[in-house]
Amino acid sequence: MTRSTPVATRSRPKAPSPAAGPLKRYRSSVGKKAVMAVTGAVLVLFLIAHAIGNLKVFLGRQDFDHYSHWLRTIGEPAIPHRVFLTILEVVLVVAVILHMWAAVSLARQARRARPIRYAARPKAHENRYATHVMRYGGIVILLFVIWHLLDLTFGAVNPKGGKAEAYDKVVADFDPSRWYISLFYVVAVVLVGLHLRHGLFSAVQTLGWGRRGRYPAVRLAADVVAALLVIGFVSVPVMVTIGVVK
Ligand code: HEM
User: Fold this and answer.
1) Which protein residue's CA is at the shortest distance from atom 23 of ligand 1?
2) In this predicted model, what pLDDT tens digit does every residue of 209-243 receive, in sequence order?
3) Where would you tag: which of 123, 155, 214, 225 has the fewest CB atoms within 10 A of its CB?
4) Going from the N-terminus, what domains does the chain have, and what CATH number goes with each?
5) Distance (Å) from CA 131 to ligand 1 centroid
6) 236 C-alpha to ligand 1 centroid (Å)
């Protein structure tokens, strides 16, 4: 009598079902890359708008607080108070979740298709750097956003608490005595920039929007967008900490 050996199936890496042929797998990976690109675009647009909005801090307390109130009253009276902002928040949360799901899923799919690493491949070094920036950088950015919401949106970890106006919260947060908070923001924003720089370039590459010959130009454009965004964001904590904004 023969007995089945469950051990053999236990340790085998999960292979794609035979029903899912190469074409199906290719289509599903293209779909996931499209999800990454679309959600990434939503997040980039939000970041650009957010960085521009933050610069209002340089126009003074009144302008900045007015902008913060405006965010809650967009569309009033046709749209009830804070509804637009709530929709934006839901869109952002959904975009972040889908972006992460597609990233993890694509990484798993790539590992399954290539169980042995290309240790000696030229550019393996560069790829490893990009993977680290995207994977670990992405996790740090997520943790930063959670802190940031507790800090400047809800005020739970802000010296001024939740009831204060936005300007007071920002100035108290990045006070010279709290330079380490500013440093944390600067590091997080630089990681956002690195993530974006690689993400923008990959999106253009994988969606086939740029021809190979244009890659240097695409890379330069991604670098410029990321650098402008980082400078815009970083200027706020830095200028408060060195006492230019008070
Ligand atoms: C370092 C510079 C930054 C400063 C000074 C800053 C400042 C602020 C302030 C003051 C608010 C509250 C706005 C209000 O409630 O009126 C806010 C909200 C928010 N920030 Fe930032 N931010 C910075 C960077 C970032 C980055 C890099 C991200 C994302 C990666 C981000 C994501 C958000 C989100 C998701 C909200 C919540 C929007 C809402 O629903 O009200 N921020 N930020």
Assistant:
1) 233
2) 767 778 899 999 999 999 999 999 999 999 999 99
3) 123
4) 32-113+126-241 (1.20.1300.10)
5) 26
6) 11
Counting as low any pLDDT under 70, the low residues of the chain are 1-23, 25-27, 114-124, 210
| Contact present, 100 and 30 (Cβ < 8 Å) | no
Q: Retrieve residue 230's tokens.
A: 């980082």
Residues 6+ apart with CB under 8 A from 83: 75
Spatial CA neighbour of 246 closest among 166, 135, 172:
172
Residue 207: DSSP 8-state? T
Which ligand 1 atom sits closest to the C-alpha of 67?
A: 16
Ligand 1: distance of its center to the CA of 148 in Å? 7
**Residue among 170, 141, 192, 140 nearest 238 (CA):** 170
What's the pTM value of the predicted model, to 2 decimals?
0.87
pLDDT tens digit string along 126-148? 778 888 889 999 999 999 999 99
Instruction: For residue 141, give every residue at least 6 positions away whose Cβ sits within 8 Å of its Cβ, in sequence order, or none.
Output: 188, 191, 192, 195
And the tokens for 68? 């913060």
User: In 3D, which of 64, 68, 194, 218 has the Cα closest to residue 132?
Assistant: 194
* CA nearest to 203, candidates 25, 42, 28: 42
Query: What is the position in ligand 1's atom list of the atom closest to the CA of 57?
Result: 5
Residues with Cβ within 6 A of ligand 1? Answer: 50, 54, 68, 71, 85, 89, 92, 141, 145, 148-149, 152-153, 166, 170, 185, 189, 192, 233, 236-237
